[in-house]
Specification:
The complex is a heterodimer of chains A (224) and B (210).
Chain A (H helix, E strand, L loop, with lengths): L1 H35 L3 H14 L3 H13 L3 H14 L4 H13 L3 H13 L6 H13 L3 H11 L6 H14 L3 H14 L4 H13 L3 H13 L2
Helix pairs in contact in A: 1-2, 2-3, 3-4, 3-5, 4-5, 5-6, 5-7, 6-7, 7-8, 8-9, 9-10, 9-11, 10-11, 11-12
Chain B lengths: L1 H19 L24 H14 L3 H14 L4 H13 L3 H8 L9 H13 L3 H14 L4 H13 L3 H14 L4 H13 L3 H13 L1
Helix pairs in contact in B: 2-3, 2-4, 3-4, 4-5, 4-6, 5-6, 6-7, 7-8, 8-9, 9-10, 10-11
Classes of the chains: A mainly alpha (224), B mainly alpha (210).
Chain lengths: 224, 210
């Protein structure tokens, strides 16, 4: 009986001490649990508590993801800017903030983020290459977008999507032959790629090849 | 005593376990909001059919285009794009009554600019000019530089003998496009109908010289 009481008291003491010393991490963990359950506002509150004591930049990044998840772009931007002040070379935060600017149709701000990062000697990973290509495309800076699409296509996971988007961009510039060729190459490898086929159908119609365009639309409706 | 420490350790471990992952923030990281590409969005049959119908229309295969629009309307009876597209094709093929019937019941404010202008053209075809004038005028308040629509308005105004308004419309167009001979000729004709013969002659002469 005495032993059990002793064990209980020690456990209680340890628990209380732990909570007193480690509460920011507990708040962080509770934030993680809430985030996993889709309770983003609750998670944000916990992350904010944790951020009061923790200097770990991952806390701020997760808080920003919460604000992004609930569409509170201003709060997300504030947090991410603060994070990038601390760690200007943090590519994951740059991607998040650039993504926010893409959504709010401010590609020039996103370009500036990547430009600063590259000026600091940062390297882009394949998803960042694709993201930057899309940002340039959104800003209608097609010449700047193209090399990043080509670079992104070097990565097997992104090859198809990068090639399709590059071909679409070609078509917007009136380079229909190049676009058709690019899309047909994608479809030769992936005949079930519906986006590539839809883009091909559109480009063919813009080029005045209505019959070929019709064929592609009908193939889409047949759902290969 | 050893048992005691062992038990204490277990309990402490158990307590810590609940918070252990708290020190591992990277364990569950949501994906970044990089903005989805058009390539990642689902392509519906409706989108495909609507685009196919347009291609068939460009290729002047109106019957097949109408068939495709009707397929869309069979599954989505309220699809506005299909209704507008179908009514356009019907109108171009001379079936203005059927075109009007297709758009019947569609609230005007639900139509986009293209649909509204289409409706205005249908009113014109039915010689129901007042609602057409209203639609053209409202549209031009927002897009005053759309000279094609202003010309349609000017023509309708002239047909119902609203000469001062028609003349003002033609003058606005000619201010922006002074070398448009066809517009100047129409302007001259309307001036003559309005009894301004001297001015009309001058405009008609000018249209010959340009």
């Amino acid at each position: 009986m005495k032993l059990a009481l002793y064990v209980f008291l020690v456990a209680l003491l340890v628990s209380l001490l732990f909570r007193r010393v480690e509460w920011p991490w507990i708040a962080f963990r509770q934030g993680e649990i809430a985030f996993d359950r889709g309770l983003y506002l609750e998670a944000a509150a916990q992350y904010e508590r944790a951020a009061q004591k923790l200097s770990d930049s991952r806390v701020l990044e997760h808080l920003a993801k919460c604000w992004l998840a609930v569409g509170r772009m201003d709060e997300a931007e504030t947090v991410l800017l603060k994070l990038l002040e601390q760690q200007p070379e943090r590519l994951s935060a740059i991607k998040l903030l650039a993504g926010l600017y893409q959504k709010t149709r401010q590609p020039e701000k996103a370009i500036s983020l990547f430009t600063k990062y590259l000026a600091l000697g940062g390297k882009l990973d394949p998803p960042a290459e694709l993201q930057l290509a899309r940002i340039y495309r959104q800003a209608a800076l097609y010449d700047e977008a193209a090399p990043h699409y080509i670079q992104a296509a070097e990565d097997l996971k992104q090859k198809t999507v990068a090639e399709v988007e590059l071909a679409e961009m070609d078509s917007w510039q009136g380079h229909y032959d190049e676009a058709v060729q690019g899309l047909r190459q994608v479809l030769a490898v992936e005949p079930a790629n519906r986006q590539a086929r839809l883009s091909l159908a559109r480009v063919l119609s813009w080029a005045g090849n209505y019959k070929e365009s019709e064929d592609e639309y009908r193939k889409l409706l047949a759902k290969p | 005593m050893r048992i005691c420490f062992s038990l204490t350790g277990s309990i402490v471990c158990a307590l810590l376990l609940g918070s252990a992952r708290a020190t591992d923030p990277a364990a569950s990281s949501p994906s970044p909001a990089t903005g989805s590409s058009p390539a990642e969005t689902e392509i519906s049959d409706t989108t495909t059919r609507l685009e196919l119908a347009k291609v068939l229309t460009y290729d002047k295969r109106y019957g097949e285009a109408m068939e495709v629009y009707r397929q869309v309307l069979a599954t989505e009876p309220d699809n506005l794009e299909a209704k507008i597209g179908l009514s356009e094709v019907l109108y171009w093929t001379g079936n203005s009554e059927a075109a009007a019937a297709t758009l019947k019941g569609v609230p005007e404010d639900k139509l986009d600019d293209k649909g509204k202008l289409m409706l205005a053209d249908l009113f014109v075809a039915k010689k129901d000019y007042e609602p057409a004038i209203r639609i053209f005028s409202t549209y031009l308040e927002r897009k005053p530089d759309d000279w094609t629509v202003r010309l349609r308005l000017a023509d309708v105004q002239s047909w119902i003998k609203r000469y001062p308004e028609a003349i003002a419309s033609y003058e606005a167009i000619l201010k922006a496009r002074p070398h448009d001979r066809q517009v100047r000729r129409k302007y001259g004709m309307v001036l003559s109908w309005a009894g301004q013969n001297e001015k009309a002659a001058e405009q008609l002469r000018q249209s010959l010289n340009e």
